[in-house]
Amino acid sequence: MTDDTPPPRDGNRAVTDTRDATADRRDATGNTQDATAAAGERAERDGTTGLKDRIESALRSVRDPDADVNVFEAGLVESIAVDGGDVTVEAAVAEFGDENAGGIMQAMLQAVRDVPAVESAHVEPVAPSTEGEGGVADFGTVIAVASAKGGVGKSTVSTNLACALAGERATGLFDADIHGPNVPSLLDVSGPVHSDDEGSPLPIRASGSDAELDVMSVGLMESGAPLAWRGAMAHDALTELFTNTAWRADDTLVVDLPPGTGDVVLTTLQEVPVDGVVVVTTPFESSLEDTARSIELFRDNDVPVLGAVVNMGEFTCPSCGDSHDLFPGSSVEETLDAAVLAELPFSTEFQETPAPGETTPAFARLAEAVSEAAATAWDLDLPTDAVDIRGEPPEHRRQRVAEGFTSLDSGATFTLVSDRDPTPVREFLGGLTDRSPSDIEGFAVERRTPDDWVLTATRP
Ligand SMILES: Nc1ncnc2c1ncn2[C@@H]1O[C@H](COP(=O)(O)OP(=O)(O)OP(=O)(O)O)[C@@H](O)[C@H]1O
């Protein structure tokens, strides 16, 4: 984008300013070294650090429209990358509406390009970083346990699964079942919940002989009260706990959802970065049909379904030792469009209080199956020549795109994987091949997971 082209005022689009579009383009493709070399020398002369400081102080003149502070103090500047005279600023403007985000990015762009020695400026919208903020965001893996109906053994599966996982990794268990928070009683733990120095609620710790489990439940907050919570109040309380709980564990979080697929379940799944959901059902035909509908709903909401636990389908008589099918003729495989992770019999051993790290063989196997399914739930199934720029520093991204795109034969499909919306790349691809962006055929962007976009385009 050059000086006379107004940048888009769309909060989801990057804004760019290039003093010399040709030099910038050639520099990105790597075809002409002169521009980069000259810029590099200049940057060296100025000192990249000095330039970065000047950019930072220029950005301090840009105000956050929602608060009486500058964009730095408001935490909107995620990063500043300087490559010679090329500057890329990552701006965490997701919380603003499109128009405001566009306005702030435009003001930031203006401030950056007015800094002497800046040759091209680029402001990219990014999601605010959540690392180290506490709450569910700090867990590497989040597994939700759901059921279409109550009473099918969902909390039994959540607690035993969490106890099995706790033997292998630092695990937390979040009881989000606002209507019947029974995890504390199943694990035999109780409040009161204490706060840390910053006022964040600390989870209760359940202990086994060789492992521990962090537990937080709406049922621990005020005895009796959560059962009366409804609507907004319940949702606010849940969000507060999801966001603020000061977990000590950080590897895997198991979330026991309320039964059904109501508002609390869907908002929880949208607000919490869930890696996948395990659905619990009995083999009773109407329960299977409801579960099949829940599975469909989860998938429609982009929540991967890791598989199903079919509970209480069989009973072995302790007197005669015979096994009895409690739901003869049920059609688990035919009705459920999901992998069956475990089939658990009706057994009094599952009614006992589990301890972290000390679990039954059936739940140890379930924990293994769930971990495996969660590790591959977000696999993108990409061609081997896909260019993956996830996690790449901003200053390398355009170069990787240029190298990948220009190295293809005419008519070949270019595939790009990014951790942010790569739609603005269309313009760049056009520039690389001296075409207008609309002439790039087969251009499509698909958001495959909350953090992964896949772009495809045909090389002219
Ligand atoms: N496989 C099993 N064998 C024997 N009893 C079981 C089994 N699974 C669950 N139960 C028992 O069934 C009862 C209901 O289980 P649980 O509380 O886990 O269900 P739930 O689906 O979480 O119910 P809700 O969501 O309505 O609270 C409990 O008493 C539990 O001990």
Automatic annotation (TrEMBL):
**Any one biological process term the GO annotation gives:** iron-sulfur cluster assembly
- What CDD domains would the database entry show? Mrp_NBP35
- What is the similarity comment for this entry? Belongs to the Mrp/NBP35 ATP-binding proteins family.
Q: What does this protein do?
A: Binds and transfers iron-sulfur (Fe-S) clusters to target apoproteins. Can hydrolyze ATP.
Which HAMAP family does its entry note?
Answer: Mrp_NBP35
Report what the protein is called.
Iron-sulfur cluster carrier protein
Is Iron-sulfur among this UniProt entry's keywords? Answer: yes
Keyword Disulfide bond found: no
Quaternary arrangement and interactors, per the entry? Homodimer.
Q: Which InterPro entries match?
A: DUF2249 (IPR018720), FSCA_dom_sf (IPR034904), MIP18-like (IPR002744), Mrp/NBP35_ATP-bd (IPR019591), NUBPL-like (IPR044304), P-loop_NTPase (IPR027417), YlxH/NBP35 (IPR033756)
Keywords noted in UniProt: ATP-binding, Hydrolase, Iron, Iron-sulfur, Metal-binding, Nucleotide-binding
Q: Which residues bind ATP?
A: A148, K149, G150, G151, V152, G153, K154, S155
Q: What SUPFAM superfamilies does the record tag this protein with?
A: Fe-S cluster assembly (FSCA) domain-like (SSF117916), P-loop containing nucleoside triphosphate hydrolases (SSF52540)
Single GO molecular function:
ATP hydrolysis activity
Where are the compositionally biased (Basic and acidic residues) regions?
Answer: 1-28, 41-51
Q: Which organism is it from?
A: Halogranum gelatinilyticum
Domain DUF2249: start-end pairs: 387-459
Q: Where is this region: Disordered?
A: 1-51
Query: Residue limits of the MIP18 family-like domain?
Result: 52-123
